[in-house]
Amino acid sequence: MIQLRDFSVRLGSRDVIERCTADVDRKVLLLGPNGSGKTSLLRALAGVLPYEGSARVEGVEVAKARNMNALATNLPEVFTLGVRLRDVLYLFGEIKDLNEELAVKMLRNVGIKDLSKRVYELSSGQGALFRTAVALATNPRTILLDEPFENVDAARRSVVVNWIEEYGESGLVVTHELDVATNFKELDAYMLFEGRLHGPINVGELLSSVVVEGSRNGALLEVEIGGKRFSFVKDQQGSKLGDLVVLDRIYSLL
Ligand SMILES: Nc1ncnc2c1ncn2[C@@H]1O[C@H](COP(=O)(O)OP(=O)(O)OP(=O)(O)O)[C@@H](O)[C@H]1O
Predict the structure, then answer these.
(1) Which domains does the chain have, with CATH numbers?
(2) Whose CA is nearest to atom 29 of ligand 1?
(3) Which Pfam families match (predicted)?
(4) Going by CA atoms, what residue is nearest to atom 12 of ligand 1?
(5) What is the pLDDT of residues 187-223, one digit of tens each?
């Protein structure tokens, strides 16, 4: 369970996340184009970036929390200890209550079998799979997954979809790929544009919606991008959001 109240993240002289308020009590997708602030939001919630306002995870203010076992993330910052894969599993066993047997099984399922390998010897896709598997094998309540499908091939992507369905009770799964979102049509999503959080909205409805300029009665969602308002509407002629494949292409519709 994540509760944000007037939550902002400032980097340098600018707010990359601006006064967001949301209650996330189930697993939701966090969609946004490159540079919209998704990773910054997750970093702040994982306690590795300062924030203003309030962010509670499982009722605990993140800034005051120490080693929250209820929270799991695949952010690389959390995986900097340990040279070999088995060192990381050992350390997560000590500090995060990792179910090592489960982690080994999940890693085998995606072809990561040699635990004497050094972490830096993993390919970028294998690295993403390793961090996601280890995070989810800690029996978390809240999950924060940043681009868990990045550089992962199609067969392994479906394994990761199953993992996300199975593990964790609530939390944020970040992607800028609308192709990935098609696997989660039953879930809700938040969209992040220019540091502002919009939603929640059902993923299936979002993907079949059309983006039009201005405010519209009955719109599923309205967003502000570059100072202009846009509406996501149903049952209208035009390019569907789901056809864009990656959300970054939304700028070609605006
Ligand atoms: N350490 C930093 N100092 C200053 N600005 C930063 C820093 N890290 C990120 N930013 C800026 O903050 C904004 C949000 O970055 P962030 O990485 O959170 O976006 P994102 O939505 O995760 O993007 P992507 O999909 O490309 O990973 C970007 O404009 C980025 O340039």
Answers:
(1) 2-207 (3.40.50.300)
(2) 35
(3) ABC_tran
(4) 16
(5) 999 999 989 999 999 999 999 999 888 899 999 999 9
